[in-house]
Amino acid sequence: MVTYIEPAKELPVYHYDVVVAGGGTAGVVAAIASARTGAKTALIEAKGYVGGTMLEGGTTLHSFFTLGKYFHRESRQIVKGIAQEIIDRLVAVGGSTGHLEDKLGIDYDEHCTLIDVESVKLVEAEMLEEAGVDIWFNTLVAGADVENGHIRGMIAQSRVEGRIYFEAKTFIDATGWGDLSAYAGADYIVPKEYSIANSVGVAGVDVERYAKYIEENGGLTGITYGPRDGEEGQIVRIGASFWKVLSTLMAAHKKAQGKDPGYTEEELARNRIPVNVQKEMAKLALTLGITTIHENYFMYLKVNYVMKEGLSSQAEMTKAEIELRRRQAAALDLLRKNIPGCEKAFIARSSPTFCTRRGRTVICEHDISNAEILEGKHFDDDICYFGFHDLAPKYHVGGDGSYGIPLRAILVKGIDNLFAVGMMITTDYDAYMSTRNTVSCMGQGQAAGTLAAMAAKSGLPLRSIPVETLQTRLKADGVYLG
Ligand SMILES: Cc1cc2nc3c(=O)[nH]c(=O)nc-3n(C[C@H](O)[C@H](O)[C@H](O)COP(=O)(O)OP(=O)(O)OC[C@H]3O[C@@H](n4cnc5c(N)ncnc54)[C@H](O)[C@@H]3O)c2cc1C
After folding, report:
1. Which of 58, 318, 387, 454 has the fewest beta carbons closer than 10 A?
2. What is the mean pLDDT of residues 83-112?
3. Ligand 1 centre from 56 Cα, in Å?
4. Rounded to the nearest whole angstrom, what is the distance from the C-alpha of residue 261 to the centroid of ligand 1?
5. Taking the mean position of all CA atoms in its chain, how far away is CA 291?
C-alpha cells in the first residue's frame, strides 16, 4: 500500500482531572458521577447527542430487578443510583414508563423499563450540564499519548477546532468499541461473525391490531401494559417469537406472489421448517418484538446483519450500512402487505449509523465468567450489582438472583489510569450476554466516574485507593451494594 507521512503538528491542550471518552449508556453516568465527586470533567462524544446504544439498540432497559415470580420469590430492585435518577427524570417529562411488570415473560425479564429515545437525549444532556461536565459533541477520540503504561493525554478530532489534546489524570473509555483502550495499546479481542443492527422507529401503525396478529399466530411471548402518551393501561411492549410469526408471514407473502412457501402447514405447526427456508427467512433478520410509549408508533423494530469480518473491515462496514437499509425497506414492505395495523407504516427514524452488539473487548484485570454469574458470585471489590441474563431462560443468575461486578473488571490491564466500562468488558461470550446490558453499563459507569474523580482529587493512583472508601461513597450516592 502507498503511504503518506502526516506532518507533526502543534495541538492546543485542554486540562481536566477526568476525561470520559464516549457519551453513551455508561459514559454519561460516569461523567455525571465524576463531576459530582468534584473532578473537572470532560465528556467527548462523536455524535451531536448523548445516550449511545441505549437509544439505538433496544429501548427496554435490562434490568433494574432480579427475577422473582419464576423462582417463587420477591423480585428486588438491585440497580439504583444515577441510573434510577435518569429514569425518575425521564418519567417526570413523559420520557419513560418507569419500571413495569410483564404479564407473560417471567423467565426472561419480569420487569421492563421503557424509554423514549428523544427525551433521553435532552434529559441526560441537562443532567450533565447541571453536574458541571464540559460536553464536547461532534468530537472523535483519535489517539492516545502513552508512556510506561500511563496515558498522558488523549488526542481527538473536533469538527470545529480540528485536532486537540486532552490532558487528564484519569481516563474512562466508554466508547463501546474500545477506541481509547486500543489507541492506548491495551490488549483486546475483536469478535468476528458478529450481529449488528439498525433499529428503526416505525410510525403509522396500530399497536393493538399488531398485538392481536402476533397473538393469533401463536407468537406472543410477552406483553406489558403501561402509559402511552400519558394514558395508563395501554400496550407498551410486545414480545414476539420470531420463527412462529415470521414463517406464517413468509407463507402469506409467497402465496400472494403465487409461490410455494417451501413447507407444509403441518411442518409449520411442528416448528419443523426446512433449513433452506429458515435461511431465507433469516435473510430478513427482523425482530418482531416492539416497544412504544406513543400512539401509532413502534419504537423500535430491529433489523439485523451479521458482519463476517467483524468490525475490522472498512469495506464491510460500508456494505453493512447499505444492506441494513435494504433490509429495513424489505421488512417494512412485509409488514405493510401482511400485518393488520401496519398498512400505513413508515420509517420515522433510524440511527445515524448501525450499532453493534459487541465491539472490541478490552482485557481487564478480572474477566467475569459465566460460571460466576450463574453462581450469583459477589466479590470483596463489588462496585455494582446486576441480575439480568440475555440468554435466559437457558441461563439464570444464581444465588439470590444477583451477582457483583468487581472493580477489577473495569480496570484496564497494563494501563494505570484507564477504566473500560460498558459493553467492552467480559470476554466470555455467555457472561457478556449479561454484563453488556444497559443497566449494567450504567452501574459500571457510576463506579468508574466516582473512583476516577477520587483519584484525581487526592493525587493517588487509582489502584491505591481502598475499595471500601469507594464503596462507602457509592452507597452514599444511592448505589445498591447489598
Ligand atoms: C441491536 C441492539 C439491541 C439491544 N437491545 C438491548 C435491550 O433491549 N436492552 C438492553 O438492556 N440492552 C440492549 N442492548 C445492549 C446495550 O444497548 C449496549 O450493550 C449498551 O447500551 C452499550 O453501552 P456502552 O456505554 O458500552 O456503549 P454506547 O452506549 O454505545 O456508548 C458509546 C458512545 O461512545 C461514542 N463513541 C464511540 N466511539 C467514539 C470515539 N472514537 N470518539 C468519541 N465518541 C465515540 C458513541 O457515539 C456512543 O455514544 C442492545 C444492543 C444492540 C446493539
Report:
1. 318
2. 93
3. 8
4. 37
5. 15
User: pLDDT category, 241, cuts 50, 70, 90?
Assistant: confident
Q: How far apart are CA 9 and CA 7, in angstroms?
A: 6
CB 445 within 8 A of CB 27: yes
Instruction: List the beta bridge partners of residue 115.
Output: 96
Of 25, 121, 361, which is best to mutate to test ligand 1, by the most ligand atoms within 8 angstroms of its C-beta? 25
pLDDT at 58 over 70: yes
Lowest mean pLDDT among 163-167, 234-238, 281-285: 281-285
Sole residue written with cell 403441518: 266
Q: Which domains does the chain have, with CATH numbers?
A: 13-54+117-191+360-476 (3.50.50.60), 195-356 (no CATH)
**What pLDDT is stored for residue 93 in this prediction?**
96
Residues in contact with ligand 1 (CB, 6 Å cut-off): 21-27, 44-47, 52-54, 57-58, 60-62, 140-141, 174-177, 179, 197, 199, 302, 355-357, 422-423, 436-438, 441
Pick from 367, 465, 459: nearest CA to 413? 367
Amino acid type, 368: I
Mode of pairing for the β-strands spanning 139-147 and 60-61: unpaired
Give residue 90's identity as a one-letter amino acid code.
Answer: L
Cell of 311: 468490525
Neighbours of 315 (CB within 10 A): 8
Per-residue pLDDT, 280: 58
N-term to C-term CA, the chain: 56
Task: Indicate whether 321 pLDDT > 70.
Answer: yes
How open is the CA angle 151-154-156, to the nearest 5 degrees?
A: 165
Q: Closest ligand 1 atom to the C-alpha of 63?
A: 11
At position 70, the amino acid (one-letter code) is Y
